[in-house]
UniProtKB/TrEMBL annotation:
GO process terms (BP): protein targeting to mitochondrion
CC annotations in GO: cytosol; mitochondrion
Main location: cytoplasm
Listed name of the protein: Mitochondrial import receptor subunit TOM34-like
GO terms of molecular function: heat shock protein binding
Database matches in InterPro entries: CiliaryAsmbly_MitoImport, TPR-like_helical_dom_sf
Keywords: Cytoplasm, Repeat, TPR repeat
């Protein structure tokens, strides 16, 4: 068995979410941005700007995916 893969950092997840968004995989982007938000919130150093970017990116993904209610929720975070 290969060694357990280390969890990705929030910045790696953000980049992966960006790639999914660019290719039109909005549902996947939403899931990845959600993981990135959780990872960033687990860090001792919480950066409001970085969280804002992740929520904005996820909101854009929700909008493109046709989920306006979740988009509005993320915009109000």
């Amino acid at each position: 068995m290969p060694q357990k893969q280390r969890s990705k950092s929030w910045t790696e997840l953000k980049q992966a979410g960006n790639e999914s968004f660019k290719t039109g995989q909005y549902g996947e982007a939403i899931n990845i941005y959600s993981l990135a938000i959780k990872e960033l919130e687990k860090c001792n150093k919480k950066e409001p700007e970085d969280l804002g970017i992740l929520y904005s990116n996820r909101a854009a993904s929700y909008l493109k995916d046709g989920n306006c209610a979740e988009c509005v929720k993320d915009c109000n975070m």
